[in-house]
Design a protein that fits this description.
Structural class: alpha+beta
Radius of gyration: 18 Å
Strand order of the largest sheet: 8-7-3-4-6-1-9
Number of domains: 2
Strand content: 25-35%
Distance between the termini: 27 Å
Number of strands: 9
Helix content: 10-25%
Largest sheet: 7 strands, mixed
Length: 162
């Protein structure tokens, strides 16, 4: 996982342990000790209120839905070199993190027509002088582009892909 200077970081062992605990908790009722741990800020961090106008990250939420012409074997993944691109200035912001989608070469397989995968891509904050931008996923002859995102103050964007 890419490290972001804006987010508290956890070691790989801490992340594995959290994932193990969450799997256990899905199947077991919460004890009071667990409730207390889950309600506390992680890793000794102090919660802060953040003014959306001072937003330091950009979140691109994407819903991918398989085509009605779906034939078995479809998969999705994200290239770690994915970036946001300003077509006016040619500046770019590199992908910081991806949630619920594997990085290439790993793949998430979809099983049937209409299956959906919801995932989030995280980037640094969009500069104020960017009015529009594109999301670009590079590839060997198959570069994928989602065009014309309009910058907003919240730094949160939604797209659906079919």
């Amino acid at each position: 996982m890419s490290k972001s200077p804006f987010l508290p970081t956890a070691s790989d062992d801490q992340i594995k342990r959290i994932r193990e605990c969450l799997r256990i908790l899905k199947n077991d009722p919460l004890s009071e000790d667990w409730k207390h741990l889950l309600e506390a800020p992680p890793f000794g961090q102090v919660e802060e209120q953040v003014d959306p106008s001072e937003n330091q990250l950009t979140f691109v939420h994407i819903t991918y839905t398989t085509s009605p012409k779906y034939d078995s074997g479809w998969w999705v993944r994200i290239h770690p070199q994915t970036f946001l691109f300003n077509p006016v200035t040619c500046d770019k912001l590199d992908l910081q993190s991806a949630i619920n989608i594997p990085y290439s070469p790993k793949k998430a397989y979809l099983k049937r027509k209409g299956d959906q995968l919801h995932f989030t891509l995280i980037f640094s904050a969009i500069p104020e002088d960017w009015d529009t931008f594109h999301l670009v996923e590079p590839g060997n002859g198959d570069t994928f582009v989602l065009e014309n995102f309009k910058r907003n103050a919240e730094g949160v964007y939604y797209r659906s892909i079919y």
